[in-house]
């Protein structure tokens, strides 16, 4: 069977085709450049650009694998969490296509897609494992006993990792996307020149994350510095990166030890950071814990992971529409229910 995945949760428009026998056949991602002009995603502009690009992208995807719309057996789309304006575009296009083709439509939880993006790699974890989801809007530790059965061990109670990095990068005069450019700047910094707090690490039973305090500390620190000096800016970026990485490691290790799990997967946009991967690999190896992560194209918002979850949730009993409530069954980000 061929599953089409459609992802429009934020500023990336993506269309993918997944074959439940062969895997991902095509995964096209279009990243909107216009938001760099404003230093962040403008929801209305994002939605308008999704509407402009999504049909040509669907055609391009089908053309690339030499298939027609009539060859598609089901459509999976991101139903949330995300920017509501952008989500609506994906939902309307997906439902319209599914209705016209008389094929199943499968709503997919965006975070569940990130969690299982690792399953599209050759090197996969076995169950159970713990997932560390780190993106612009979410920082979560999730115990995964099997597909469809999850327990949220910890989550961000205020700013997520990605939000914090984006806000500080803007103060450092960096272009959007902030987190990515901040990591580039940090390479020129001197390690431990500045040392920033590691938030919420004292209470050993608390696996939640809070980065608003770290953000405020760094903002106040920046106000006292000469930001015209490139080296100072690089040292600040390096110190912030180190604080975030070590905090994520400490929390993850506590969760792994508490539940006696020896496998950690990291997913989401921030998981593409090379320094984070190297740090976690070295540290976790000492505890005989395996680290898993996806290639960079699968770390960002993409339709391949959406199509995969759609295939996993497909039920041949429902010939026309799949109405399974992903939010309830996956227990991921209930507060973001659309």
Number of strands: 10
CATH topology of the largest domain: Nucleotidyltransferase, domain 5
Can you summarize the main beta sheet?
5 strands, mixed
Shape, per Cα inertia axes = globular
Low-confidence stretches: 319-338
- Mean pLDDT over the residues: 90
CATH homologous superfamily assignment of the largest domain: ATPase, nucleotide binding domain
Percent range for β-strand residues: 15-25%
Helix content: 40-55%
Numbering strands along the chain, what is their spatial order in the largest sheet?
Answer: 3-2-1-4-5
Order of helices and strands: EEEHEHEHEEEHHHHEHEHHH
Which structural class best describes the helix and strand composition? alpha/beta
The domain tally reads 2
General description of the model:
The chain is of the alpha/beta class and 338 residues long. The protein has two domains: 2-115 and 298-336, Nucleotidyltransferase, domain 5 (2-Layer Sandwich), CATH 3.30.420; 125-293, ATPase, nucleotide binding domain (Nucleotidyltransferase, domain 5, 2-Layer Sandwich), CATH 3.30.420. 41% of the residues lie in helices and 19% in strands. It has eleven helices and ten strands. A five-stranded mixed beta sheet has the order 3-2-1-4-5, sandwiched between helices. It has a five-stranded mixed beta sheet with strand order 8-7-6-9-10. Helix 1 (43-64) packs parallel to helix 2. The chain is globular, with a radius of gyration of 20 Å. The model is unreliable at 319-338 (pLDDT under 50).
């Amino acid at each position: 069977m061929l599953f089409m995945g459609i992802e429009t949760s934020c500023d990336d428009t993506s269309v993918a085709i997944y074959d439940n026998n062969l895997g991902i056949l095509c995964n096209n991602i279009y990243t909107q450049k216009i938001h760099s002009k404003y230093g962040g995603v403008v929801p209305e502009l994002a939605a308008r650009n999704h509407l402009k690009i999504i049909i040509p992208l669907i055609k391009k995807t089908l053309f690339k694998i030499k298939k027609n719309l009539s060859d598609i057996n089901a459509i999976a789309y991101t139903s949330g969490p995300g920017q509501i304006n952008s989500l609506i575009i994906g939902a309307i296009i997906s439902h319209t296509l599914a209705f016209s083709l008389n094929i199943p439509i499968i709503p997919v939880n965006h975070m569940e897609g990130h969690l299982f993006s690792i399953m599209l790699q050759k090197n996969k974890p076995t169950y159970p494992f713990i997932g560390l989801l780190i993106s612009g809007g979410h920082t979560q530790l999730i115990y995964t006993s099997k597909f469809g059965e999850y327990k949220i061990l910890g989550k961000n109670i205020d700013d997520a990792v990605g939000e914090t990095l984006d806000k500080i990068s803007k103060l450092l005069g960096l272009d959007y996307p902030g987190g990515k450019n901040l990591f580039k700047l940090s390479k020129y910094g001197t390690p431990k020149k500045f040392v920033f707090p590691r938030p919420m690490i004292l209470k050993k039973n608390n696996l939640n994350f809070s980065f608003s305090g770290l953000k405020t500390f760094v903002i106040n620190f920046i106000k006292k510095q000469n930001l015209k000096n490139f080296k100072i800016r690089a040292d600040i970026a390096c110190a912030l990166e180190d604080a975030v990485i070590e905090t994520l490691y400490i929390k993850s290790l506590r969760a792994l030890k508490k539940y006696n799990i020896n496998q950690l997967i990291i997913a989401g946009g921030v998981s593409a950071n090379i320094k984070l991967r190297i740090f976690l690999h070295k540290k976790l190896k000492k505890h005989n814990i395996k680290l898993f992560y996806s290639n960079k194209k699968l770390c960002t918002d993409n339709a391949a992971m959406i199509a995969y979850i759609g295939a996993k949730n497909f039920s041949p009993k429902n010939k026309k529409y799949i109405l399974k409530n992903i939010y309830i069954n996956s227990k991921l980000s209930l507060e973001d229910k659309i």
